[in-house]
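Journal club side-thread
Mid-discussion, someone asked how the predicted structure for our own chain would compare to the paper's figures. Pasting it here so we can look after the session.
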Amino acid sequence: MTVKRKVMVLGSVIVPLVLLAVWYLDSPIRYLLTPPDDLYDALCLKPADFRRTGTSYECEYVNKYSINHTIGINVERPPDITTDLGWKIKAKVEVSDGKAVLLSTEIDKPYYPFWGGKFSKGGFALVSYNTPDNLPIGKVLKCTITLVKGDASFEETYGRTSMYVAKASDK
């Protein structure tokens, strides 16, 4: 058998095996090629008032896929890309599984603002995490956002608000 023929035979065996592995394994490449219908749905979307200091908002959800996620604030009127955010909110974000706190962080500025999406006109990502590296897949989790310091003008500026957990943009 010639070298060219060996390479062709080997390639015709290896390429399909690699494609099958990508298809059946839980990988970001699989979601890029054939995303599930619910991939871009919010895992949690619950009304919240970010004006009042000391209030807490909770929602339960289950991570389904091995991808990047964000926890944040969904707004009715996202900021203009050229506008200074004038961020005044301080919040504590916790995720627990009912037995232990798995993720806890304090926020004094957003991780990043975003515009558009399947469930939103835009908002502010507060925390980013990966599954299964940072939080588990297939377990009921409870996310709590506690306002250490609210912003009295937040709703006036951005409209109605809610907390969310959803797929984040791919890195």
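Post-session note: The chain has a mean pLDDT of 84.
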